[in-house]
Amino acid sequence: MQVTETLSEGLKRELKIDIPAGDLAAKLDNYMADMKSKANIKGFRPGKVPVAHLKKMYGRQAMAEILSNTIQETTQKAVEERSERPALTPEIDLPEEDAEKILAGDADLSFKMTYDVLPDFEIVDFAGIEIERPVVEIAESEVDEQVAQIAKNNTPFEPKEGSAADGDRVTMSYLGKIDGEPFEGGADENGMLVLGSGQFIPGFEEQLIGVKAGDEKVVELSFPEDYPAEHLAGKPATFDVVVKEVAAPGEATIDDEFAKGLGLESLDKLKEIVRGQIEGQFGQMTRQRVKRQLLDKLDEHYSFDLPEKLLESEFKIVWQQVEEDMKRNEKTFEDEETTEEEAKADYRKIAERRVRLGLVLSEIGEKNDIQVTEEELQRALYDRVRQFPGQEQQVFEFYKSNQQALASLRAPIYEEKVVDFMLELAKVTDKTVTKEELEKLVEEDEDDA
């Protein structure tokens, strides 16, 4: 194998690799010798098939496999010998006009490989980084408020005589139709609806005010223009409704019996769970704020050239998300008081920051031997699988057979572990804030992202 450097400019590298046809022929001979010992071809005794016959039948296929393996092995060896770290898998350029000759064993294998190397940079001492951690102290009134909301969501209803009023629960069967034909998802035999809750499309609940058990009513309305199901959006529809029961709301007494109705042993246990949920919610916001401060501090300390293809890949992801968001929200660049060119320049800076900080965190993790355990990866995989009820097996098999997809699960775990490692060494000071102050800080961070 002969390796010739044809380009070394900044982080860009281009190598020309030449492998003599004789080396390939030797590999083919070894391949055929191995095949001969195993081949079972009609008309020949096992192990007695002539090599010439095997080459005639399988030579081209064998050479294609040899070329693929040789290219993979030589590119890896070339990079290792140069002690370089490619940012992405090197691109291989094999001249098409030579392909047939190479497969036939009549030409040397000669190809180009191009890649960007990861930049070299020194890790700054982050032990002295100062971080202010905003912490919300959960007041008892906050817990009581959440428990009261749970009670409201579990309001008991008692059947009543007379007409349905705002706040009453109506149990009904209904059949929705468009142009006289039932449509998918527009029917229910025992639907429950609290009038005034806004659960159904506008106009439905209002037309049920005054109905009684046993009443039949045709509700006429139109689906909103922005209704998620496009085949229904803006369409006029009718619903044939049969009222089965009208029930009035009672009051839930917040006590141990109420908690037991939720499957808990006491009201204190319910409050304990609610407090934990609130702490978890604000804990995530605190974590988000602390991590943002840490990344901002790192961003101030590093400035180095980025691998172009890695940057383009990240920018493509960022820009695709921008376009999808704008389409979903029916926004234009003019609405945002900018132009596409200006927006691209701004989001390219975001992509640059992400790539640069990603490289820094990766380097810190590597130098400090931070690893993602198999258990952690499996837990993330199972969490992901649970997001697709009914398709668990297919999703599981997809990730297990796709290393790139599996890497997408490993990356955020690795990043969080590196952040945790750095925060243990940084100077972190707690500061008590109100929930409104914390929400504002997080909102400002998101606006600046």
Averaged pLDDT? 90
Identify low-pLDDT runs.
none
Taking the sheet with the most strands, its summary is: 5 strands, antiparallel
Radius of gyration: 33 Å
Assign the structural class, choosing from mainly alpha, mainly beta, alpha/beta, alpha+beta, or little secondary structure: alpha+beta
User: How many DSSP-defined strands?
Assistant: 11
The rough form would be described as extended
Please work out how many helical segments DSSP would assign: 12
Helix/strand order, N-terminal first: EEHHEHEEHEEEEEHHHHHHHEH
Fraction in beta strands: 15-25%
Short structural summary:
The chain is 49% helix and 20% strand.
Structure explained in plain terms:
- This protein has 449 residues and is α+β, with helices and mostly antiparallel strands.
- Helices cover 49% and strands 20% of the residues.
- It has twelve helices and eleven strands.
- Strands 6, 7, 8, 9 and 10 form a five-stranded antiparallel sheet that branches.
- The longest helix has 35 residues, at 267-301.
- The chain is extended and about 95 Å long.
- The two termini are 48 Å apart.
- The mean pLDDT is 90.
